[in-house]
């Protein structure tokens, strides 16, 4: 099942940095898979999860779905995702919860709005970008402040 989950969450194509807790990433991927992509719709390339099904239960379903979505955000914060990315992830959860709470249309909205899947992609991308920046800093010489001298632009 683990390989299936990783395959279904194909938006993030990079390597997970060694410094990232892989068990936490797998837990996050599992939640996203179950709530956003659990079942394929026959005859289409679309998938749905428990989110639209839970959303059909007034109030309680949306609250339960939002709680699991917030788990992904909390786990991402624990892993060290930046505040900017965490705010974007929270916005995704708010939009998912608000859109899913609309009677009748909410179930359809939950089928299309894949907040959990997108939040994992954003978190992993953020963690990878942060690692790349740290690698660049580590590669600088001790006395090198990164300034290669003045930039001269010759305008004629």
Describe the structure.
The structure is a single chain. This protein is mainly α. The chain has helices at residues 2-8, 22-36, 50-55, 60-79, 83-100, 105-112, 115-138, and strands spanning 39-40, 47-48. Helices cover 63% and strands 3% of the residues. The protein has a two-stranded antiparallel sheet. Helix 4 runs parallel beside helix 7 (115-138) and helix 5 (83-100) runs antiparallel to helix 6.
In short:
The protein has 156 residues and is an all-alpha fold.
List the helices and strands and how they pair.
Blueprint: H1 2-8, H2 22-36, E1 39-40, E2 47-48, H3 50-55, H4 60-79, H5 83-100, H6 105-112, H7 115-138
Antiparallel strand pairs: 1-2
Shape: globular
N-C termini distance: 64 Å
Uncertain segments are 1-10
Share in helix? 55-70%
Strand content: under 5%
- Total DSSP helices: 7
- Gyration radius (Cα, Å) is 20 Å
Strand order, biggest sheet? Answer: 1-2
The beta-strand count equals 2
Structure classification: mainly alpha
Question: Topology as H/E string?
Answer: HHEEHHHHH
Q: What's the mean pLDDT score? A: 80
Biggest beta sheet attributes: 2 strands, antiparallel
């Amino acid at each position: 099942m683990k390989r299936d989950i990783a395959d279904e969450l194909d938006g993030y194509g990079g390597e997970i940095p060694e410094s990232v807790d892989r068990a936490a990433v797998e837990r996050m991927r599992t939640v996203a898979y179950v709530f956003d992509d659990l079942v394929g719709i026959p005859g289409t390339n679309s998938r749905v999860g428990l989110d639209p099904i839970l959303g059909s239960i007034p109030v309680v379903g949306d609250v339960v779905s939002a709680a699991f979505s917030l788990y992904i955000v909390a786990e991402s914060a624990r892993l060290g995702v930046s505040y900017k990315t965490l705010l974007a992830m929270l916005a995704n959860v708010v939009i998912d919860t608000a859109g899913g709470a609309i009677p009748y249309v909410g179930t359809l909205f939950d089928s299309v709005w894949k907040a959990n899947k997108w939040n994992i992609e954003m978190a992993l991308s953020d963690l990878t970008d942060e690692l790349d920046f740290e690698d660049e800093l580590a590669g600088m010489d001790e006395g090198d402040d990164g300034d290669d001298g003045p930039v001269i632009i010759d305008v004629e």
